[in-house]
Amino acid sequence: MKQSELFLKTLKGEKAGYTPVWFMRQAGRFLKSYRRIREKYPLLEMFTNKELIVEITLLPKKLGVDALIIFSDILIPLKLFGAKIIYEDGKSPSVIMDKSNIQYHENLENLSFLFEAIGEVKRHKKDLALLGFAAAPFTLLCYVFGGVEFFKLRGLMYENPDGFKKLMDLTTKMTIDYLNMQLNSGCDAVQLFDSWAGLLDEKTYRELVLPFNQRIAKSIKPSIYFIKNSHHLNHLLNKMDFDGFSIDWRSDLVQVYTSTNRCVQGNLDNTVLFADEATIKTKTKEILKQTEKIPHIFNLGHGVLPQTDEEKIKMLVDFIHNETGRFS
Predict the structure, then answer these.
(1) Where are the beta strands (DSSP E) in 126-270?
(2) Residue 108 forms part of a structural domain
(3) Which parts of the chain span the membrane according to its record (predicted)?
(4) In whole angstroms, how large is the CA radius of gyration of the chain?
(5) Predicted pLDDT at 56
(6) Inter-helix orientation angle 161-185/151-159, to 10°
(7) Cα 208 to chain center, whole Å?
(8) How far is 259 from 228, CA to CA, in rounded Å?
(9) pTM confidence score
């Protein structure tokens, strides 16, 4: 069975053999090969140059992972809203756009560089699963409005929930189109990143965010939903029809599986990779033992940190594959 086939079987809820593994931010600054490219090009060019997207997406294949994720940034689809995105070294990216009159003209051709790159990557590595991704509508709008803990957007939610829903409706439509185009271009599955939804209380999430995520879940298959700091929201995950749920290290994978009956992904604390090899293996074994009878895709609870030793990542992949039977 190809790695891509096993990955997709697992995501669709089958215990299909060994545990597949990939990492969020696996094509990033911890790789020496990435840093060499980064020395030559500004970030915006790296995110919008088809050849660079292909080259960087393929870098993690040397780690032995079972899936690649297209190299991009969650802010890139804001170009469909006419936004200008500025990346400066050492600073958070900034978004320049008219927030009082956000419009979406279904101008997906403006992102042809990404869709063409997806096709190229898939032609290079048919044996590996290829993931696309997008920010969930709430998380994307957090970056549009900015501010510490995104107080501007959250204030709008409480003051003008109807106006907020209109923004979410528009952003949801764009996100569905954007993810479908990634799938049509060659991605095998997509991941929806809701990195900031954990800031919300249960009632606000249930009423103002969950319905829009569910629209995406019903429209996009196969799909994974990633949420951070979600322990108070995990009981709501079963109300969304995603194929898999990725959670951080603060939540229990088996509990999420039991409540959703869907594939779970994660959730090693990314700081464990700064411990010694024996500790990494012990912590990894704990997760593999917990999930040995359920469909599980191994990942970290968040992205690989830039200071991580890439040799430890390679060791971790080999260890997971050996422990779960790929090389038996």
Answers:
(1) 129-135, 189-194, 223-227, 244-247, 263-268
(2) yes
(3) 128-148
(4) 19
(5) 98
(6) 120
(7) 21
(8) 17
(9) 0.97
